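stage 2 :: seqdesign
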């Protein structure tokens, strides 16, 4: 498997809305980080769809190496 591009080595804090679908960029190439803009096309990467049960602030992974896709698990501290 190819390695994703590291968009940034810190998470993206995002205020999410309950019931809305979010598509997290897994390749790191999107110009609309942390969300997918389709730049993965032709690669083995696909966006990760996520929705939430309540309005809240979540931390989407910016380094693209999290084991808890799409949310940050601290993996960036090991890069």
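stage 2 :: out
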């Amino acid at each position: 498997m190819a390695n994703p591009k590291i968009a940034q080595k810190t998470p993206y804090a995002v205020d999410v809305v309950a019931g809305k679908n979010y598509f997290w960029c897994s390749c790191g190439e999107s110009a609309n980080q942390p969300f997918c803009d389709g730049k993965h096309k032709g690669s083995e990467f696909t966006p990760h769809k996520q929705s939430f049960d309540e309005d809240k602030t979540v931390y989407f992974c910016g380094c693209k190496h999290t084991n808890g896709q799409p949310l940050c698990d601290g993996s960036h501290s090991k890069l």
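stage 3 :: structure notes
- The beta strands are 12-16, 22-24, 48-50, 56-60.
- The mean pLDDT is 96.
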